[in-house]
Specification:
Elements lengths: L2 E5 L7 E2 L15 E7 L2 E7 H13 L1 E4 L5 H4 L11 E4 L4 E4 L2 E2 L1 H14 L3 H11 L5 E7 L3 E6 L8 H10 L3 E6 L2 E6 L4 H12 L3 E5 L6 H6 L2 E4 L4 H4 L7 E3 L5 H15 L4
Parallel strand pairs: 1-5, 1-13, 13-14, 14-15
Antiparallel strand pairs: 2-4, 3-4, 6-7, 7-8, 9-10, 10-12, 11-12
Helix pairs in contact: 1-9
Length: 270
Amino acid sequence: MPVLVASDLDRTLIYSAAALALTMPDARAPRLLCVEVHESKPLCYMTETAARLLTDLGDSAVFVPTTTRTRKQYQRINLPGPAPAYAICANGGHLLVDGVSDRDWQARVAARLADECAPLAEVQEHLLRTADPVWVRKHRVAEDLFAYLVVERELLPGDWVKELAAWAENLGWTVSLQGRKIYAVPKPLTKSAAMHEVARRTGADLTLAAGDSLLDADLLLAADRGWRPGHGELADVGWTAPTVSALPERGVLAGERILREFLAAVRPPR
């Protein structure tokens, strides 16, 4: 029976220059591989060692990139190793099969959102009305499924995100602050639901997961085993669970450690 590995990407396996956390002396810094280019500029990296580990993982398990990114944003990433047969985008809103969004899954997601939470338009209007242009740089809607703001963190009022989260909770939405982005996402829109669907289709009898943000918590809880790095939303609040390991590594070296943990679980010692 195959093992399914569902991993978040940004700040879990891949890292922007600002998120690398290279605290060691320059001469001891790891060699990096660029895995994303945007507007002709390098954007995200992993260590060369992590790239080799990911290649090995792709040969040993069903590796499923699992991201809040839109399909267009995900398709900019050029991961090493075999091309994944499945990928989860838009926080579970799209299940890609050989790069194409599965229409049956789209329909199931749309039906759940209509039944279980307030419409996107209501949340979007609230964001536009309450977010201050002094610290908001961009308003965005992703795949007509959820909304997010790009903000200046140093200008963001300390209680604004908490107040937004309390308001959204009553409408069936959740709020997550990740770097310079504030996400507002419908509660039924989850990475875990899409992971379970891939497990059903592949017949996987063991599921492994990793992630760093509040939007990854459901994925980590749904997997048989999970890992989170020493940075990110979950680390900031000390979040953990009985089946989730909190790793000490931060930055790009955390991505390397997570891949080692995945491989050790996929290939247990005899």
